[in-house]
């Protein structure tokens, strides 16, 4: 079974869903029907496990590029090493936004899910404690397998893009990592999509119905 051609690794709350919707409409791309189908954070992250996963979510090889989007991959400790060990040639895409805005959006999601009782000032003050930061950087990503779990430990740690991407950059070549920004996608959706298409090896110019949404 073939490997992934590209992987959108995050960050969460930064428009990974938008990129997923744009790309899965492309006739030259094969992606799972749902975005949140993680593999590299699963229990069976192995070559036999990949054969089973790929058969279920991609079907047979048909000449299209294979891609996936899982925003938690940027933040789960050990994921970069697992990707590198299994698929060293994969191209990685990160999309980022202002880290304070990302933290606020993540907090607001916790409030909507009723997993966050604190006000924002208190939550951030507690998360900026150095011991808390260090602990939260190493916590496993919640799976939400039995309903929404709290992500309140990660509002700040998952916004530390430099720390996270420095780790990826140490494992993958510079030609394998593309960093985009939410603000670019908002201001110039067509141009940003073209950059992404060229990065993964496709011709620019594709315009999905979702462009600009």
In short:
The protein has 213 residues and is an alpha/beta fold.
Task: Indicate the topology.
Elements: E1 6-10, H1 16-24, E2 29-30, H2 47-57, E3 65-69, H3 79-86, E4 91-96, H4 99-112, H5 120-127, H6 130-137, H7 161-169, E5 177-181, H8 182-187, H9 189-200
Parallel strand pairs: 1-3, 1-4, 2-3, 4-5
Q: How do the SSEs run, as a string of H and E?
A: EHEHEHEHHHHEHH
Sheet of most strands: 5 strands, parallel
Regions with little confidence, pLDDT below 50 for 5+ residues: none
Shape estimate: globular
Radius of gyration: 17 Å
**Portion of residues in helices?**
25-40%
- Report the β-strand fraction as a percent range: 5-15%
Structural class, from helix and strand content? alpha/beta
Tally the beta strands: 5
Mean pLDDT over all positions: 94
First-residue to last-residue Cα separation: 34 Å
Helical run tally: 9
Give the strand order, joined by hyphens, for the main sheet: 2-3-1-4-5
Fold and architecture overview:
The chain has helices at residues 16-24, 47-57, 79-86, 99-112, 120-127, 130-137, 161-169, 182-187, 189-200, and strands at residues 6-10, 29-30, 65-69, 91-96, 177-181. It is of the alpha/beta class. A 5-stranded parallel sheet has the order 2-3-1-4-5, with helices on both faces. Helix 2 links the parallel strand 2 and strand 3 (65-69). It is globular. It starts with 5 loop residues before the first strand and ends in a 13-residue tail after the last helix.
């Amino acid at each position: 079974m073939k490997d992934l051609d590209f992987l959108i690794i995050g960050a969460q709350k930064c428009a990974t869903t938008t990129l997923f919707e744009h790309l899965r409409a492309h006739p030259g791309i094969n992606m799972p029907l749902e975005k949140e189908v993680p593999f590299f954070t699963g229990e069976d992250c192995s070559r036999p496990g990949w054969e089973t996963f790929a058969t279920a979510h991609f079907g047979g090889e048909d000449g299209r590029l294979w891609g996936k989007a899982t925003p938690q991959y940027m933040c789960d400790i050990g994921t970069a090493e697992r990707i590198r060990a299994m698929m060293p040639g994969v191209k990685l895409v990160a999309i980022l936004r202002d880290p304070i805005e990302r933290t606020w959006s993540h907090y607001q999601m916790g409030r909507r899910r009723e997993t966050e009782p604190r006000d924002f000032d208190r939550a951030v003050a507690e998360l900026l404690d150095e011991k808390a930061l260090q602990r939260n950087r190493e916590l496993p990503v919640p799976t939400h397998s039995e309903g929404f779990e709290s992500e309140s430990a990660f509002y700040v740690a998952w916004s530390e893009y430099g720390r996270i991407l420095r780790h990826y950059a140490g494992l993958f070549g510079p030609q394998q990592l593309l960093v985009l920004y939410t603000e670019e996608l908002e201001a110039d959706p067509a141009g940003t999509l073209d950059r992404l298409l060229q990065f993964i090896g496709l011709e620019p110019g594709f315009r999905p119905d979702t462009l600009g949404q």
